[in-house]
Fold each of these.
Amino acid sequence: MLFQLFDGKGRGNSAGVNKEFRVETSSSANSRFYYRSRDNDDGYMMNSHDADAEAGDYIFYFKNDNATQNFVVDRIVVGAVQSVLWKVWRATGTATGGTAITPVNTKVGSGATASATVLGVSAISGFSTDGQLASMRTSAANHGVFIPNDSIIIPPGGAIAIEYDTGTTGIAEIMVNGFYDAA
């Protein structure tokens, strides 16, 4: 019996087989963030600039207001003029202070919007922390990138906060990106 494997695109091309009798293939792999943004219009980026962050300030807050989908954090980028210890916390309660940040859809031209409460730019309070998810240090005038490999999943109603834990008063920048996924 002869078995023939074709390209699957209707072109009639047979799949190649090497001398070890393995099918020759190639692939292109990107992060889930890329595919969720490209295919579902639900990848978002949020940026915050705090001109006078102080040690112990929570300077970024994200609450997932979507009733049916989780928000998956793809990447957190932090940087400051000073050396800083950054902490990512689970948060509960109602946040106050800060300035509202509108998540930007990363698929240019998409009309989709995020269902979230995002605060930043200055100190945020009014909530409680409920477990530390991550921490990282950055040196002065440098940045750090935390890639949680889709392990920070914020369910509907859940929230996280990022703390400028130790460091002297100075400029701090935070960029968070992520996407919505089935709950």
Amino acid sequence: MRRARLDVGPSIPGWMLRAAILPVAFAGAAGLTAPTGWVITAVCIAALGAMFPQTGGAWIAAAMLPLFVLFFPVDHGRAAVAVAAVHLLHVLAGLSLVVQMRTIVALRALLPTVRRFVIIQLVAQSALACVLLVPTGGSAAWAAIVGACAVLVLAVGAVIAARERPSGTSAHSRRGADVGGPS
């Protein structure tokens, strides 16, 4: 019997997505100048999450990283590393739940995920830079006003988006969720 082979172009084995959790957790913790014991703890928890994604170990490791920022004085570089590392751990942890270890993943299939990651990082790092450039001390009443305006804009945008949906349609049709993929 002959084995069929499907050529998907450039690809990686699924286990590499899980394995990538470890260096990201290490680089994130070490880049935040966390004490050695905490770096080892974060990497061990990330390893647990890489081997058994359903345990949520990668997300626990990601939750540890912002704590390292709180332990020491904030500087721009450390905060940027934390934002990027937490986001990348979140993306890899999500992928590890749906991609089997023995699966071959076409790099082309990861392009939408990479695009979303880059766009979100551009927005998040820009927002972080704006927040860190604001002088500290004094009254921050203006920040509450800016935050309230941002919430108002998001709420109005959500209402407008909900009203633009054609009548008789919902997020889930009778046949299931319409995710735009092949049937």
Amino acid sequence: MGSMWQDFARNRIIVAIAGIVLGVIFLFFQSRAIDFLVWVMGIISLVTAAGYALAFAFGSTRNPGLIGAAIFSALVGILFISVPTAIVDFLPFVIGIILLISGITNFMRSFAAAGLFGGIALGPAILSAIIAILGLLVIVRPGALADAVVLFMGISLIVSGIFDIYLIIVDRRKQPVDIYVR
């Protein structure tokens, strides 16, 4: 029983240290980290395409949607791997447009809802305005979104890794409780 706990704690420490190292890499090599993340998304898309193709080939049904999904996932994976810089430049623009449209429509809906239910919709209106402004900023400066995402991921990985190591140390100080004592 103690051996299993030690193996589990050792694996958690390895994951925590890897998270801290990856977080530091994200903080200090932001432009390379973004390309790496897009490349990883491409690999995930290729693996997904292989899964769809295998499900079509060996599955109980011959759903043509599976082969279509496999082709689409493979094309996305190849695109992400072959031109990660173009993807990094294009995706924030699309996200900015989506945020801007969402913010504007939710801003209008917040006042329509306030008219229906009576009262004031200041909270939802302010939140919607902030989302619209964020969308506009992302359209104007698309690189800022990518930098912010990588910065947030780096800090999150470092904090998560440190917190995991702290919890492992605290857990090791406790004596294991045998719940099956008779």
